[in-house]
From TrEMBL:
<dbReference type="InterPro" id="IPR051052">
    <property type="entry name" value="Diverse_substrate_MTase"/>
</dbReference>
<protein>
    <submittedName>
        <fullName>Class I SAM-dependent methyltransferase</fullName>
    </submittedName>
</protein>
<keyword id="KW-0489">Methyltransferase</keyword>
<dbReference type="InterPro" id="IPR013216">
    <property type="entry name" value="Methyltransf_11"/>
</dbReference>
<dbReference type="Pfam" id="PF08241">
    <property type="entry name" value="Methyltransf_11"/>
</dbReference>
<dbReference type="InterPro" id="IPR029063">
    <property type="entry name" value="SAM-dependent_MTases_sf"/>
</dbReference>
<dbReference type="GO" id="GO:0032259">
    <property type="term" value="P:methylation"/>
</dbReference>
<feature type="domain" description="Methyltransferase type 11">
    <location>
        <begin position="44"/>
        <end position="131"/>
    </location>
</feature>
<comment type="similarity">
    <text>Belongs to the methyltransferase superfamily.</text>
</comment>
<dbReference type="GO" id="GO:0008757">
    <property type="term" value="F:S-adenosylmethionine-dependent methyltransferase activity"/>
</dbReference>
<keyword id="KW-0808">Transferase</keyword>
Length: 252
C-alpha cells in the first residue's frame, strides 16, 4: 500500500490540527499504559502530530509513532523516547512481535481494517493489547451554543462529512473489531476555550475543509451567531468531548 492510497483528510490543515485539537486526559493515558503487559514499546498508529504519543512516552520506554501523512508528522514535537515515521497503518517496518500495546486515536475509522489488523498481529507480542480511541461531538454548558454547533455538524456540513464519520456517530459500535471487548471506563476530554479557539477547532474538521473547497463557508454565518451567544469573545468557556473506547487483549 503506497502513501497515495490512504484517505487523507488532514494533511492540508496539519498546522491547525496541531494547535486546536484537544489533548487526551492523563487518566486515559494511564489506563492505556496499565492495559499493556509491559512498558517496553507502544505503537501509536495514525499518530497525527503526536498528541497521544507524547503522553504515552511518560509510561513506555519506546513509542513508535506512525502516520500516513507527512504533513502531520512534520508538526510533531521531537521526544527522546518517540520514533516518528511516515507509514500507512496497514504496512510498516516495525519488527515482528515487538510491541506491547497498539493504540489508535481518532484514526481507526479511516483504515483498511482487515489489513491493519493483520499488521497488528504481525508486530504485537503474544500478550499485547490494542485500544481504539476516538471522541464525539463537543459539548458546552450552554444549550444554545450546543444547538448551533449541532446544526453546523448535522445540517450545514452534513453532506460534506466522509462516510467513515458514521463510525464515530455510532460510537465505534459497528466498527470492525475482531477481538473480545474488554470493559472500559468512561473518560472525557475537558478544557476551556475562547471563541477564537473554538473557531480554530471547527476549521480543522474535514467537512469544513471540504465545504470550503466547494466554495461554501458556513462558519461565516455561524461565528456572528456564536459571538452573540458568547457575549464576551475572550472569555474561556468549558467544553468537553465524550471519549469512545474499544480495547482488547490480542490473545483473548
Amino acid at each position: 500500500m503506497s502513501e497515495v492510497d490512504f484517505k487523507d483528510h488532514f494533511s492540508q490543515g496539519a498546522t491547525g490540527y496541531a494547535i486546536y485539537r484537544p489533548s487526551y486526559p492523563r487518566e486515559l493515558v494511564q489506563w492505556l499504559a496499565e492495559l499493556a503487559p509491559a512498558d517496553r514499546c507502544v505503537w501509536d498508529c495514525g499518530c497525527g502530530n503526536g498528541q497521544l504519543s507524547r503522553p504515552l512516552a511518560e509510561y513506555f520506554q519506546q513509542v513508535i509513532a506512525t502516520d500516513a501523512s507527512a504533513a502531520q508528522i512534520a508538526e510533531a514535537q521531537p521526544h527522546p523516547r518517540i520514533a516518528y515515521s511516515v507509514a500507512p497503518a496497514e504496512q510498516t517496518t516495525i519488527e515482528e512481535q515487538s510491541v506491547d500495546l497498539v493504540v489508535v486515536a481518532q484514526a481507526a475509522h479511516w483504515f483498511d481494517l482487515p489489513r491493519f489488523y493483520r499488521e497488528v498481529k504481525r508486530v504485537a507480542r503474544p500478550e499485547a493489547a490494542i485500544a481504539l480511541v476516538s471522541y464525539g461531538l463537543l459539548e458546552f454548558e450552554s444549550a444554545p451554543v450546543n444547538q448551533a454547533l449541532h446544526a453546523l455538524y448535522s445540517e450545514d456540513l452534513g453532506s460534506y462529512w466522509p462516510a467513515e464519520r458514521r463510525y464515530i456517530d455510532n460510537q465505534y459500535r459497528d466498527l470492525l473489531f475482531p477481538f473480545r471487548d474488554l470493559p472500559t471506563p468512561v473518560f472525557t476530554i475537558e478544557t476551556a476555550w475562547t471563541l477564537a479557539e473554538l473557531r480554530g477547532y471547527l476549521q480543522t474538521w474535514s467537512a469544513t475543509q471540504k465545504a470550503a473547497a466547494a466554495g461554501f463557508f458556513p462558519l461565516a454565518t455561524l461565528m456572528p451567531e456564536l459571538e452573540a451567544l458568547w457575549q464576551k469573545p475572550d472569555e474561556k468557556k468549558r467544553v468537553r468531548w465524550p471519549i469512545i473506547l474499544r480495547a482488547a487483549k490480542l490473545a483473548g
